Amino acid sequence: MARHDPELKKDLDATLQTRKELGPEYESELVESFLTKLDEDVDRRVRRHLAEQQMQVARGAQPPRAPAAGTEFWQRFAVAVVSLVLAIPLSAIAVANAGLVGLTVCWAGIVGVNAVYGLAQRSPAARRTEADRD
Questions:
Q1: Which domain holds residue 88?
Q2: In sequence order, what are the residues at sequence separation of 6 or more whose Cβ sits closer than 8 angstroms to the Cβ of residue 37?
Q3: What pLDDT score was predicted for residue 105?
């Protein structure tokens, strides 16, 4: 549910009441005045939110991540699925041209690509935690 600013609601009610009293000829000025107040309110909220984030970062907290938490899983899943789909024709080509050695090299490459992608996509915090354990 949205959180409403009581001051902004009062300003809107006052603007609507003033419009009733003054008539439609002052409507554009009233709307412009209200939009200016709304812009100022949004700017104030954004500045406060950014200041809170900067304080959290200054205290050592991790800055918020842009993508959603579930996005990383789906990216890894997509790489794995694409790898498996491409593995079928690559395996056939490798076996046809180089036999068992070709198949081994092909699958080593597929596993290597997935391993490198998986390691590169881990968060820095997870890497630090692993390094601390060593």
A1: 70-123
A2: 8, 11
A3: 93
